[in-house]
Specification:
Elements: H1 2-30, H2 34-60, H3 65-74, H4 80-89
Helix pairs in contact: 1-2, 1-4, 2-3, 3-4
Length: 91
Amino acid sequence: MVKKFKICAIFEGLFLLILLFIAMPLKYISSFSQMVQLVGMAHKLLFLLYIVLALILYYELKWSFKILGIIMFASVIPFGAIYVDKKHLTQ
């Protein structure tokens, strides 16, 4: 389950970066809003999957509520997935 969470976290973080640094500037610079819709939908689905997998790992690995909060907060920060992987998922 940890491996699935890592993969999901990487893709969720990648789509967040694409959304923030490519799709949003394209929307406001060249009025190309379709990319925001596509990348935004993918990011939403991956974000929900990230949350569900984090809750599953919370019970499986017996994390404290503080660690769960840090992992949830890291999902909304660019490059937060890297921090989670290095700090809390490295065995």
